[in-house]
Amino acid sequence: MADIDCMEKTSLSDAVKRLETAVGQLETAVQRRLDADRSLNSLQDDLQRLGEDRSQLAASLDESEARASRLEEANKDVSRRLVTAMETIRTVLDTHGG
Q: pLDDT, tens digit, for every residue of 65-96?
């Protein structure tokens, strides 16, 4: 009977050790999962910030392209006026023996 009690205590002791090991592994797995979730949330926040930055950059690019187009049109207008002015000056010079 003493041997049975001793075997039961050993079996119980082994079971407790296995349970403690399993609980420790579970706690480790839970901690890894929490860390992964935090990492995922951080990545999602970064992705959202990148999206916002992209939108701001796209708006800035659109404004710059519109400004460049206006400047190009102004440049063409000034060029046409200069050509007209030069032609007028040549005509005046030619007419007055310049």
A: 999 999 999 999 999 999 999 999 999 999 99
